[in-house]
Amino acid sequence: MRRLRTGVLGPGGIGARHAAALAQLPDQFELVAVCGRRAEPTEAFAAAHGGAAFTDFDRMLGEAALDVLVVALPPGAHAGEVERAAAAGVHLLVEKPIALDLETGRRMVVAAEAAQVTAAVGFMYRHGGAVRRWQALAEAGATGPVGLFAGSYHCNALHAPWWRSEAVSGGQMLEQLIHLIDLVRLFMGEPDTVYARRANLFHGGVAGYDIEDVSAIVFGWDDGRLASLNASNIAIPGRWLKEWRLMAEHMTARFEDWNKAVLVRTGPDPQDELVAETTDVFVAQLADLAEAIHERRPPRAPLAEGEASLRLALAARRSADDRREIRLTDAI
After folding, report:
1. What is the pTM of this model?
2. For 264, phi and psi rounded to 5 degrees?
């Protein structure tokens, strides 16, 4: 099987993480190009990971003969590259959130569908061993419907300058908490309402920091089901605390992360199942993309899911800013 000629757009930290994952799949991928705005970091990236360095995206697209493009840009930095790559017949993995507004996200999805390329979004949590185990049990009817989802995402760092700017990152709800928003949709389907609050409590004096550092979201379903999420950037420095719990009709779950969970069957004789996988989800999502391309099937996290989860994140942010509950059929 021919290796897929792959380019990376965005030679930053997440681009390097994807490049390292590509290196773990030498039979499926060949990194042949990287593109960034500035020559020096782009050339350094190419020296470290391989491929030719470009500072002009259209030149890379025209000269590198790509099969796959990994788009590792901040969400506010998109300028039609996804659409042009799709039109050129290049398959895609686009980092989340795919955009800062639904119109831009919709254009990406429409372009990929029109070109009939395989396009995935970087919701890597979906590829974790514990997440896949729950999904398998749910599909087999063992869990019953989920009635309550409770999740949290806490960190404490200034991150990159672009991350602190709502005009570029969209804020913590869009840039980080969207992973859990996506899991709400995966486990429970589309909610009917959202109510949220957010604030910048402790970073008002930090130059360029205009996003929230605390937030909370409640999604509701008209049949009574609920999902609650909270996030902060005021927790323990150097630690990333991401966990969630599911309460379903026949089973509960406490996820430490995408690979580790305790599942409990809640019948008359409760039974615990410990899931402790070691899946590298960055590698897994690329392997899934390669298989989807060759098998002509949708990837585990199609680009359209990036648009759908973005819709919920934007509605939550709007709810927080308006300080009112929003019915999602009326949302942007």
Report:
1. 0.96
2. -130, 120
Take residue 239 and report the two structure tokens written for it. Answer: 């630690």
Which residues are CB-contacts of 70 (< 8 A; sequence separation ≥ 6)?
6, 7, 8, 9, 15, 18, 22, 93, 95
**Residue 330: predicted pLDDT:** 72
CA 250 to chain centre: 28
Largest CA distance in the chain: 64
Domain of 105: which CATH number?
Answer: 3.40.50.720
Same domain, 59 and 112: yes
Residue numbers of the domain that contains 71: 4-124+283-301
Distance of CA 59 to the CA centre of its chain: 28
Residue 290 CB coordination number (10 Å): 23
CA–CA dist 182, 188 (Å, integer): 10
Alpha-carbon distance of 31 to 18, in angstroms, equals 10
Residue with tokens 């009635």: 147
- Asked if 58 and 148 sit in the same domain, the reply is no
Average pLDDT of 8-36?
A: 98
Q: How many residues does the chain have?
A: 332
Beta strands per DSSP E along the chain: 4-9, 29-35, 52-54, 68-71, 91-94, 119-121, 146-154, 193-199, 214-220, 226-232, 241-248, 251-255, 260-265, 271-276, 326-327
**Strand ordering across the sheet containing 241-248:** 271-276, 260-265, 251-255, 241-248, 146-154, 226-232, 214-220, 193-199, 326-327
pLDDT surpassing 90 at residue 175: yes
Relative to beta strand 251-255, strand 241-248 is: antiparallel
pLDDT tens digits, residue range 269-319? 888 999 999 999 999 999 999 999 999 999 999 999 999 999 999 999 999
Residue 328's pLDDT band (cuts 50, 70, 90): very high
pLDDT of the residue at 332: 55
Residue 207 CB contacts under 8 Å (≥ 6 apart), including other chains: none
Confidence of residue 267 (pLDDT cuts 50, 70, 90): confident
